[in-house]
């Protein structure tokens, strides 16, 4: 698939020179993304819950200048409203300050949208939607601290990329974030028990992200907000898997916590992207049951 890694090494045909400052190269990826305009994206999120490995996948397109996009997210088996063996899909719109979900089920009428204020989520919507959207994934890298250069790789599509590995600080990322993501990253910095987030990133010769993987960790199932709310109280795609529904309850414990690996791929730069917002009458305002 586009965006997956192929050949690795530090030299070879078409290899890129080593960066003078790896941390600077990673931190600048968010700005390069905004300048690139649009792209297609794929997402994958995995975690352990009740002894079962859970995977959530998504795909869509984003407009980076506007900071918005659309994803179709495929939920794990066992979510509310799914038939045995079925993996339901949810349509998601990610815009500055809000997440919209359609076909959510679990008490929401068919054809209706649910709107969630992302700044009200304890995780800043980094996992609630079942995906770390590409804008947020890039903005997190503004908080990169320890970064090492790992050589080059070639994607399945033939693009040569530089590989980086390091740790970012959620608090630093929130301080450095663009205005349209700052509030939700501030929520994440308050809500996660671990503000240090390991990451791997692949960046092409134009400074654009091709792949980034974050390893989030928190204790007790889901991060708690300042008011004691859990991630997913707005009904996110990962709420059941992480916060107590879906596959058998709490995914973490008070000792080791739960690890969520979230990967975002970027490909098809320049592809047309259209985000059509729901009409006010199409937004459901009633009670929302958990997944």
Structure write-up:
Residues 28-48 have a biased composition (Low complexity). Residues 231-249 have a biased composition (Gly residues). InterPro entries: LolA/LolB/LppX. With 291 residues, the chain is of the alpha+beta class. 16% of the residues lie in helices and 36% in strands. The chain contains 6 helices and 12 strands. A hairpin with a 2-residue loop joins strand 2 and strand 3. Helix 4 (170-176) runs antiparallel to helix 5 (179-191).
Give the overall shape.
globular
The percentage of residues in β strands lies in: 35-45%
Number of domains: 1
Strand order of the largest sheet: 1-8-9-10-11-12-2-3-4-5-6-7
What kind of assembly state do the chains in view correspond to?
single chain
Largest sheet: 12 strands, antiparallel
- Euclidean distance between termini CA atoms: 30 Å
Radius of gyration: 18 Å
Q: Which CATH class applies here?
A: Mainly Beta
> H/E series, N to C?
EHHEEEEEEHEEHHEEHE
Proper CATH architecture: Clam
Mean pLDDT: 83
Number of helices, counting only DSSP H or I runs of 4 residues or more:
6
Structural class: alpha+beta
Enumerate the spans where pLDDT stays under 50 for 5 or more consecutive residues.
Answer: 1-13, 224-235, 240-255
Percent of residues in helices comes to: 10-25%
According to DSSP, the number of beta strands is 12
- Fill in the CATH topology: outer membrane lipoprotein receptor (LolB), chain A
Region (Disordered): 1-48, 218-250
Biased composition (Gly residues): 231-249
Organism: Streptomyces abyssalis
Biased composition (Low complexity): 28-48
